[in-house]
Amino acid sequence: MLRMEPLPEFFLSHTEDEGLGGDDYEVQFYTLMIRVCRLRAKQKERGFVDEDLAKEAKQLLQDFEDWNPKYPPWAVKPADKALEQGTKVAKDADKAYRIVWHATSWLIQQTGRVLVYEILIAWHRTQNQHFPSSDTEKSLREVMKGQAERGQIVQGGVDYYLSNLKISRATSRGVGAHILMLPLNILSSASSSTGQTFLWIAQTAGRIAEIFSVKQGKMISDVIMMGIRMRSTVATQPPTPDPTPSPEA
After folding, report:
1. DSSP letter string over 148-186?
2. What does pTM read for this prediction?
3. Looking at the domain assignment, is residue 210 inside a domain?
4. Domain limits at 81?
5. Any domain includes 130
């Protein structure tokens, strides 16, 4: 849904209600993610990214940077820089429901930022195609780098939360495992994803399928590994001889 469709309007209006500001909700989180969904919906409806849409995307990224999330009393606030690094959570937050809560709030907003970068990449790629210059090339490289860096942070977070959920015995850990599939799906369509990224996605999806019996994980892993093997086979095949006879013949 984050990649393709907007949320239903009745749901959007409900989540924007100030009444969501209780212990279990962070209004700004929903507000930012609603904006991500709407931006992606506009991109799909128009079929291209114009300057206004690019400006909205740039502002949204800045708003993500400026956001200082609040945590409900039952959630242990991570140590400094923990959310940004995605690799540390306080020791007493090892219960599955707390891990799932952190994984949900942190990973979803991180993958949302990857999607916003995708909009900017589309804009700068078009600009570079139509008005090629050192400036447009530089701008495209910068947003590609920004998305790639955010993708690396997401990968670190997925690895961390997967390791924690793996050692948990709570039944709610399965919910967390399904949540971890979202960033894998997003990264599989990100412009900055490399061969190494796809290998990591395949391996991680395979682990999720094996540990938590998530069928979607096995499907994604099998499809990506098949593609990797096919590319490897093509790359190792000797070149086809030119059937055109040489002049000497």
Report:
1. HHHHHHHHHHHHHHHHHHHT---TTHHHHHHHTHHHHHH
2. 0.77
3. no
4. 9-150
5. yes
